Recover the amino acids of this structure.
């Protein structure tokens, strides 16, 4: 019986070097596949970490912008409160001035009425002056 043996590479046994057999080649290829899979996993993990880092950076920028906007809103709120207070103060001053003017007009009207009555009494006493009552009517005489 003839048996055949498969030999991949044959080197003389007295020469230094590496002997490759199917088993050692399979182990070597298994190691290469495992290293490439580990490399792929490492690349995936690193890319996910980079995405997370970029997301965190964007969130930080957004938070900083929102903090600036919140400060602007607080400043506008203070300014609005000052304007509202100024408006209230001006309104109070104007109401006070209008009240004073109203009192002054009433006082002047009463003085004119007093002087008019005084003149009417004088004219009635010394002359035949007749006082007519004046009535305001909204209807026109036809």
């Amino acid at each position: 019986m003839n048996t055949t043996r498969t030999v991949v590479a044959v080197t003389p046994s007295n020469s230094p070097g590496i002997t490759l057999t199917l088993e050692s080649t399979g182990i070597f290829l298994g190691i290469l596949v495992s290293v490439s899979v580990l490399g792929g996993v490492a690349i995936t993990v690193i890319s996910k970490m980079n995405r997370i880092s970029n997301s965190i950076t964007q969130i930080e920028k957004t938070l900083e912008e929102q903090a600036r906007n919140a400060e602007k809103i607080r400043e506008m709120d203070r300014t609005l409160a000052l304007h509202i207070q100024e408006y209230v103060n001006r309104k109070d001053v104007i109401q006070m001035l209008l009240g004073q003017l109203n009192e002054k007009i009433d006082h002047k009207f009463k003085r004119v009425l007093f002087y008019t009555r005084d003149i009417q009494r004088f004219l009635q006493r010394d002359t035949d002056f007749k006082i007519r009552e004046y009535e305001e009517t909204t209807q026109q005489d036809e």
The first helix runs from residue 22 to 126. The mean pLDDT is 85. The radius of gyration is 55 Å. Residues 56 and 101 are 67 Å apart (CA to CA).
